[in-house]
Design brief:
The chain has 425 residues and is mainly α. Helix content is 64%, strand content 3%.
């Protein structure tokens, strides 16, 4: 009997503890071997982080230089050296580093550039984790080390860029901002490629996982509604926007650059529009307000995106837009309930109110944090004087989003369960 056991084990595909590789038996991932059977070499952490940081910086800086170079072109003049310096300044601004100008401080970051930077830094975290052999290791320490190395290298690049602007940006501020952004963004990629994100998801309570997922869905639906409203407003005021672009008196290339700069600020307009639909609204200068119940603005800069600002308080059929945030929450609650009811039907277990309403209540604060952070990032000064205050108030947006999404999600989830046939539960 004992002599047949090893043969049966081999046929069934099972591997005994003595036959397992040492690294896998201890819960560690063994580096994939090369074709000749030798272990794959690991790159030094410093080298991998330096290459990844420089690559992320170059791929986000180059588009800025091209766009600003086009915007500076006129029909009879061009300034390549000025485009390089302006590219550095715009690149720093996209990271949230304020600039010193003759018109006052400029801190209104183009969120499209910020999103590009975050994406490239997240990929840098992935590349460093792979190069150092941390892929699939499910080690939080390895993920933190990879993210910290990327952040350190990126901070050095930020300091150098600030020095090259000739005093337009603070090197100390640039170093701190680049370090924080580099670590946080690279950590997103590192925890995914190392498997740490999956490890945390496995250990988190089911209600928390479902609540975070539902809150993110509700927040993204609100931002999508804001994008739709902003696009419709700009399209309605397209004639004014075209007049503003023509007033710059540039050639075709210059007008293309101005349009691309406006598109870089399109995510800012999306967040401001979502804040408008939620109720808190936003400011386009000191002592101004753009809300559904009040529109009070003064002289505005010739920015094409501002051509879509409402002329007055919302009334008539437009008041129906006020229901959009609640409907977004209800849609997220409906998706949550449908998913939980489907899983319960597959497992043939009853679905109580607790597992359904708990995640729905968590979704409100999650969406509030998401929209509040987006509002904080979307605003900033656009110079001194009246333009020192631009964008929504973050805490107001976060608080209103929390209340609206929590109520809408609870209502949508409860209604879905109540009107679902008992056989589907």
């Amino acid at each position: 009997m004992s002599s047949d056991t090893p043969e049966h084990t081999r046929r069934s595909g099972a591997i005994s503890a003595d036959e397992r590789p040492a690294g896998r038996a201890a819960g560690r991932r063994v580096p994939a071997p090369r074709s000749d059977g030798s272990p794959r070499a690991r790159a030094p952490l410093a080298v991998a982080a330096a290459v990844a940081a420089v690559g992320a910086a170059f791929t986000s800086y180059l588009p800025v230089t091209i766009v600003l170079g086009l915007a500076q072109l006129t029909e009879d003049a061009a300034s390549p050296s000025g485009a390089l310096r302006a590219g550095l300044a715009g690149w720093l601004l996209g990271h949230g580093v304020p600039l010193r100008t003759e018109a006052g401080p400029v801190g209104l970051a183009p969120l499209a550039l910020t999103a590009l930077v975050v994406w490239r830094l997240a990929r840098a975290g992935v590349h460093v984790s792979r190069a150092t052999g941390a892929r699939g290791g499910r080690s939080p320490r390895q993920a933190l080390v990879a993210a910290g190395a990327v952040g350190a290298g990126y901070a050095l690049l930020g300091v150098i860029a600030a020095l090259l602007t000739g005093g337009a940006a603070s090197p100390a501020r640039a170093g701190v901002t680049f370090a924080l952004l580099g670590v946080l963004a690279a950590l997103v990629g590192a925890v995914r490629i190392t498997g740490v994100a999956g490890l945390f998801a496995e250990r988190a309570p089911a209600a928390l996982r479902d609540g975070i997922r539902t809150g993110l869905v509700a927040g993204l639906l609100l931002l999508a509604a804001g994008a739709g409203a902003a696009g419709l407003a700009v399209a309605t005021g397209g004639g004014d926007a075209a007049d503003m672009i023509g007033a710059y008196r540039t050639g075709v290339a210059g007008q293309a650059g101005i349009i691309l700069i406006s598109l870089a600020y399109a995510p800012n307009a999306m967040v401001w529009s979502a804040s408008y639909l939620l109720g808190p609204g936003f400011a386009v200068g000191s002592d101004t307000a753009v809300r559904t119940s009040e529109v009070s603005v003064g002289a505005l800069p010739a920015v094409p995106l501002l051509a879509g600002l409402p002329r007055g308080p919302m009334d008539g059929l437009g008041a129906g837009l006020l229901a959009v945030p609640v409907l977004a929450g209800m849609a997220a609650g409906w998706l949550l309930a449908r998913r939980l009811l489907r899983l319960a039907a597959e497992e043939r277990t009853p679905t109580g109110w607790g597992p359904l309403l708990g995640p729905a209540a968590i979704a409100g604060p999650v969406a509030g944090v998401l929209l509040g952070a987006a509002a904080a990032l979307s605003g900033g000064p656009l110079g001194g004087g009246r333009l020192a205050e631009m964008g929504p108030v973050a805490w107001q947006v976060g608080a209103v989003t929390t209340a609206v999404v929590a109520a809408g999600t609870l209502l949508g989830a409860a209604a879905t369960r109540a009107f679902t046939r008992p056989s589907a539960r």
